[in-house]
Each structure stands twice: as C-alpha cells, then as structure tokens.
Amino acid sequence: MIRIGSSCALSIPMVIGYVAETRILTDCSSHWEEVARYCIDNDIYLIVTPCINDGYNHAKIPSNEEWTKLIANTCSYLKSIGANHNNTRLSIINEPMKFCTKEKYAELINMAVPIIHSYGFKVGAGNEEFITAQARGNMYQYILANSNFDILDIHIQGSCDSKEKIEYWTNTARSWTKKPIDCTEAFYGNVATQYDLLVTQMENAERIGCDNFCNVFNNLDTSVFPILKNQQVLSKWTELSFKVNGILRTDKFWEWKRLMSSKAPIPNIKKGVLGGMIIKTIGHKTTDVKSGYGVELLHELLLYKGYMNEDDIENKYVYDEETRKAVESFQADLKINVDGRVGRQTWRKFISSIEDSTVKKDFQFNLEVVMSPYNANGDT
To answer: Among residues 131, 176, 335, 351, which one has the fewest Cβ atoms lying within 10 Å of its Cβ?
Structure first.
C-alpha cells in the first residue's frame, strides 16, 4: 500500500493524511517544529526537508559550517520529540536546481548524509521537476552517481500534465535506480477540474513502488507563505488546493479523503493514537472510538455540517470538550438522544442527514474503512 498525505506542510492545518512533508526555510517562516511534533504525537509519517531558500523563494546558499549545524540541530530536535527511523526521515532540499548547481547539490547531500545516518534516520534527495532536472544537466542521474543517499524523492508535478507523460516519467524514474522512491510533491493542476489526473499520478506512483505520495495542497494555509503576497502566485496555488484556509473549494476533497483513508501506512508506525483505543472522559460522559481516524472523520462531518470551525479543533484525533458540545448540538437538531456519545446509531443518523448523495457515500465508505465495528447494542 501507499501512504497519501500532504507536501509543503508548513503549519498543522496543512497536515492531512497518513504522511506529511514539512520544510525548514532559511528565514524560519515555516512552523516545521510544530508540524513535526504534531506528526510524531499522532503517528503520521514525517518527512523533514531542510531547504536553501526563504519564504519568498530567494536562495541562500549556506556555508559548510552553517549547513552541517542545521542538519545536526534538526536531527537532535527530532530525536528529542520521539522521532525514529520508523516514523521519520529527512529529504535534502526542495527544488534544488532553482538555487544551486547539481555539483553543489551533491556536495550538500554528501555533507548531510553521515550526520543524518548517525542519528538513525534515512535520507532522501531529488525533489525536482523532471523537465527542469533534465534541462539542467540530468540532475537526478548525477546525484545518484555522485552521492550516497537512501531514497530517491521525485516531484510528479507539472512535467506530468497528461496520462502519457505521467507513465513516461514514472517509468523513467524507476529505470534510474533500484532505490526506494517517494513522491514528496505531486499534482500542479486544478484539483476541481483535473482530479482524475491527480488520481492517475497517485496510481502510477504506487505502481513503481512509491511508499509516500504527498499532494500539493490538501489544505493551503496562506498565513505561512510570504510569497502569497504575490496575487499571481496566490491565484495559481488556490487552483492546486482542495481547501484554502480550511474553506472547501471543491467537493472532490471528499473523494480524495476516501482514497487516502483506503490506503494503509507502510510500515506500521502506530504508537497509540491511530488505530488504538481512544477513551476521552468528560465529566460523566465518555466517547469510545476505536480509531483516531474515526475521531478525525467525526470532525470532518462536524465541519461539513457547520457545527465546528477549523479553529475549534485543537487535535483532530481527540474527542475533546469542543467536539462534545458540537455533537450534542447536532444530536439536539436531529431530535435524537443528546448524550455526546457517537456510536453505531448516532453515526447512522449523522450521515443520513447529509443531503448531497456523493458526500454521503464518501462518509459511509470512510466510516467502513477507518473504524472498527461498534457494539451491536448501539452507542458505545
């Protein structure tokens, strides 16, 4: 199976799915530490990408001392929050050919690898549009021949704007190496009108053995991207997004969520929240949900129905006081027992209240996929 998740996750709201790729920018405009801790705490596979550009996409080539210090400090922080080789890896520089030569890139990889390996993490490299990489001296082939990293990170992006190109470039990438391959940045089209092309990209990535497929953007948080002061960039990035600042752009998001939820993490990195038992006691009330993704699905439903806002959700995997209040309001409006508990009967009532048949079907499918059966007597 393949994990599906989020690339460019510079803040917690952007972390959607089983995997998230976050970036360390030179001007510290990303919130990568918060994202990293959130992923580790919630058993979301984490890819951390130290970069050589700021939030405006301006280059800043580090000295050797600056670079090795950044890599060591990053690894040290990750270890301090519980990261290990099962739940975290690093990827060296996003879109390097915008900022340096392939020779300099290989040098930066080679400086970083022994430090990262000493902390027990694996290393990925690549992260470039295929056409750009080839035009600038066959970058992918060069770093594979001249540096020693573990995973080839590819961008199935603008170079793959048709089914034929997707198949060509994914096959080509696999022909370059026997190393594991990941897609740290995907689709660069309009998700509202080209959703099928995104699915084709994902399917081809899976076909060539890609473990992680990170899409741009599942939920764009505009507050963490200084470059979005440029209206032209904002307009383009909006097209890429299922959501912008938590506001849904296209109902295709529910199909994408269903597809993400149908895939399983590789390897199994469960630590306790996802897939385990969550029992959150609030006063005399308890909710007993057998998967952290079940709570996430409940939050999605409450958001869709307007009973919660993104700001109300502190942790999408935890049934907290705000969630209970929203559930009770929903129950009251549906004229069912108001007890804040969500089990078989309550789920059935909640989902049956959805008028859009496509969205209803997606929620039903997700519930079957990500949640174990409830007590046959009804609410648990």
So the answer is: 335
**Residues 190-201, buried b or exposed e (16+ Cβ, 10 A)?**
bbeebbebbebb
Cα gap 292→59, rounded to integer Å = 40
pTM of the full structure: 0.78
Identify any residues that bridge with 315 across adjacent strands, giving them in sequence order: none
DSSP 123: E
Q: Which of 259, 250, 330, 262 is nearest to 298 (CA)?
A: 330
Element (H, E) at 181: strand 181-185
Number of CB atoms found within 10 A of residue 327's CB: 25
Percent of the chain beyond pLDDT 70?
Answer: 89
The strand pairing partners of 22, in sequence order, are: 48
- Four-CA torsion 198, 200, 203, 205, nearest 10 degrees: -70
Give the amino acid at 345.
Q
pLDDT of residue 288: 52
Domain ranges of the chain: 3-261, 278-370
Give the list of residues 6+ apart from residue 73 with CB closer than 8 angstroms, or none: none
- pLDDT, tens digit, 9 for 90 and up, residues 259-298: 998 887 787 676 533 333 333 434 434 445 545 667 878 8
- Spatial neighbors of 370 by CB under 8 A, at least 6 apart, are 261, 291, 293, 294, 296, 297
CA distance 359 to 355: 8
Amino acid at site 90: L
C-alpha 20/C-alpha 36 separation (Å) is 9
Q: Which tokens in the block code for residue 250? A: 């296209």
Q: Is 360 left (phi over 0), alpha (psi -120 to 50) or beta?
A: alpha
pLDDT in tens, 317-334: 788 899 999 999 999 999
Position with higher pLDDT, 34 vs 365:
34
- Tell me the C-alpha distance between 307 and 301, whole Å: 9
Query: Which amino acid makes up residue 348?
Result: R
Q: Which CATH number fits domain 3-261: 3.30.300.20, 3.30.428.10, 3.40.50.720, 3.20.20.80?
A: 3.20.20.80
pLDDT score of 370: 55
